[in-house]
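As a next step, the fold was encoded as tokens, giving this record:
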Amino acid sequence: MSKLPVHRHSVAKDSGIVPLGKSTRSNIPKPTKSRISTYQSKKDPKIKTIFKLEPTESALESRKLPSSLQGKPKLKNNSDLIDDFYNYVRTIGNSYFENDFFSASFPSALSTLRQRLKNKATTKIPSSKRKISRLSLAEGIPPSEIEKKNIPDLSSVFEKYKTLLKQQNNSLIYFRDFIILYCALVIFVCEEISNCQLSALYFLNSFLPLLIAEKELPIRENEASILVTVLIYQAFSDPIIRGHSINVLSQLIQYDTKNVYPRIRAGLELPDQHISSMCEEALQKFEVTYYPEGLEASNPPPPTFAKIPSNVTSEVAVKMLVTYLQAMEGDARPPKPIDLINNIIQTMNTFSKSPQVLENGSNCIRLLISIINQIPVEIASETLNLCLSLLSGDSYLSGADSFSALEAVQNLENALFDVVPVDTLLSAVAATIATTTEQRLPLLMTKFSEYYQYNKSEINQRQLQELSNALDSFHPMFNGRPPFLIMKSPVEIRLNNITESIERLLNPETVFQEMETVILQSPETINDYPSYIKGFLQRAYFFYTNRELEGMNEEQVQMAQDMVQQYQTITDEDIVGNGKYSVDTLSAQLEEIKNMNNPSW
């Protein structure tokens, strides 16, 4: 095993614990005598096993946390997760421990405390009362709401673990997922019982360095994440619990640097001062303990996505943007990608003449929108507006990197139209039309026309109407809109429909089909037709329906009645060849009427 830097403090002889600050053994609760009858006294060199099933690495690799506990679960005030957490840890213990040790590890008092937490999840206690309870505990006043019979004695359990750590073949290494979770469970469930919490924290202080030294062993990321969550809850605890929690947090950063370090760094930006200061102290302790020569002199931990301040220089902004890119290319993900995009947009607007800022900022946003499940319309619109302002020449770029910067901005604009869902994109385009200048509109219309050409099947008329309305409202004098955004007025649409209908009525091949269409589907439009066709359609309507159409004069009514009588006496010879009712004859008469009237409408 490789040596690890440790704190050079005195060690309690009977515990192997590194006390914090100036605390002495008087601060540390004395372990009570073990209640487990089958165990040997510490004076007895023979150690009786606690396992009925020996832990192995292969068995450990087969164990997985329930999905509800993976990631960064919020255990507090969630009764279902509290149950999942407790039952999962208990199930592992039941599978591996001898009966006596299992009973000692999971006494009924621990289950009672678990139930108490669940009750608190449904009946929230005001934060002020919680803090008062913590304060009274720090002063040595036992919490009145917990009966003595409900305070578990777990000291013998952790004493047995410490004894096993001293063995040459340490089986606890292959049981590390359980050990981490059990300690987290005890710290979490026994939230106002310092004896139990300290026993778990003391043991972790001895156990985690062993895991850190065994670098070839796979890291248990999800179990470590739960322990981090529980330790951060101790930000509001009394100073002793909080101090030892910080010590364990610093060790967890070293154990799982890839995941824990960014999380603790992100905690620095939280508005709650208790948590942010705890994270700051844990990071300081981590750096002093494991990187006394400074982080820059060694392999630094993965970077975080700290906000770019508004008062930095362009050089610092570029450095931070490059850090973002390297982190995301290494599969790191910012905790708040939307906020990060907003921050980058502001930075790019501030340094709009810096090609390096524009290039790296565009590349960052392009990566971010590709990993966000649902980008808000506002962010899509702001990003599109930014691209238009840069590509339309609002800011003049110079220097060797200007071409690369503009290419990166163009790639960002392309990514918006490629990645963002249609509904979100069209709403963003409409919002951009409302906020952009008229000088940028030709560029936007050109880009959207390209998009429409390949995606017209996914775009409906209502969405196009919204874009047209935005142009009418905010840029009424703009005349560069594409044809599909030129929306006709109702009068124009009706006039266009009648014109097309007349063409079909004057075509011998379509005259009768169009006549039936007009009569049966839109008879209210008949009076809008020119006079040389209107009378013909009025009479045809009377012929089909045996009803007078509103607006028919007496002459047309009489002609329609005569037509009905003639139809009743029609013969087969009248409708074929050159018969008086044949298609050719009627079409010729219609053309003659048209020429006689020579209408202008």
